[in-house]
Design brief:
Length: about 210
Amino acid sequence: MVQAVPQSETTPFYPRSPYVAAKMYAYWITVNYREAYDMFACNGILFNHKSPLRGETFVTRISTRAEAKIALALQKFLYLSNLAVQRDWGHAKDCIEAMWLILQQERPEDFVIAAGITTTVRDFVRMSFAELGIGVRFSGKDENGVIIGLNEELLNQYGLRSDKLFLCSTIVHVDSKCFRPADVDLLLGDPTKSKKKLGWEPNMILLP
């Protein structure tokens, strides 16, 4: 559940996990110190930002690690939860640049840092498999992912086990046990203020 789409600096917060609730403390204590003690204190409201250093318990790393193992015949399946969830994914490098720009402003303010584009988990998985030369299609009530094509040239380029991958094989399973009890279906940031006041533009955007 979200309070507005897209989400800007004025969108009311509605944390849906202990992790985000803890971030709310950090946000409001920053605002308090700025207003009470006239400190140059700013909040960067960063939407999902990723890099190869991302923790292995996050969905992007869970997916890419499993996909690599599947392509190397070290693992048979990738298990995921809700494939329809939409996220505004950006790159950590772009976010760091935005942070630096925030600190160069004359007045301390809060800024949403986001790509302004959403991608479903389903499309993320499909695109990352495609990078390895594996075409995947999701279908059926359970949305299992099935191999629909193999790019032998790309697979061989990476030294992957094309001999262990077969058309129509199911390699992605949706596991209802992995669903979060309280999740947000759609996160979409509005970076208008950051683009206008900071002159910031994301350089790396995930396009479905």
